[in-house]
Amino acid sequence: MKTLSWNVRGCNALDKIRLIKRCLDQVRPDVLLLQETKIKEEDFSLFSRKFHSWNCSLVGAQGAFGGLAVLWKGSVVDVTVVRATRWWQWLKIKSMQLQTSFFLFNIYGLINSNLKKQVWSELFEILSNDKENVFILGGDFNALIRPLDKKGGMGWNRQSQRDFHSFVTSAGLIEIPFKRGEFTWTNRRSGFLNIAEKLDRFFIAGDWLECHWTSKAEILPFTGSNHYPISLRLQDDSAPERCPFKFEAMWLRDGNIKSLIDQWWLSLFSKNFNS
User: Fold this and answer.
1) Mean pLDDT of the region 95-122
2) Which CATH class is domain 2-236?
3) 175 - beta bridge partners?
4) What three-state secondary structure class fits 218?
């Protein structure tokens, strides 16, 4: 199962819609999390029609700020919105591929430090009251954890960053590292004026050790926003691998090939049937 998360900084322009569709065609996620859509409630139906092959649920923007959206392919995942606020969507995901259910949060960390601290408090309460289920948190947290998460600009050790670090530690969140890339946001300036930060992430919490999942997170090289999209692939590591069938033409030279295939095939069937 693949999840794509992106702070798109507005979905109102036609060129941005085309960019998102191109990203979907190339990455082919099962679930898409969008932050800072800037879509108001009265424009929900218009946005949905532009992605008519996807199911979607949205949280309206406040003026020209914020806005959240989750889009999913109903043929491969079932998504239920448990609860939503201006800053996060709490989703229950049922994956046909993983053959299990888990909770997924689409998060947008606002700039205001007090509101951000309120978001961490809300999420901590939810996570601390449920240790049995698996939770995955993804999105634009708009916060840093360590000095290496920032390049250029002023220092990182502000109170809002300490609050975020405390939340991550107290909630027992485990960050899923990116296979390549370091920073997910840039101010788009060059030289010594360039600032880059790691603001977008995936975390996992809860009883995830029982899932036997392998995970792969990546930063994707799509432009069109000052944030890069990030993807997360989850795969059931306990599922048996399928071995492709191979046939060599030279086998036809053996006159006993038909009887040998019959023996191999009946033996394989018997082994699988009795296991």
Assistant:
1) 91
2) alpha beta
3) 203
4) strand
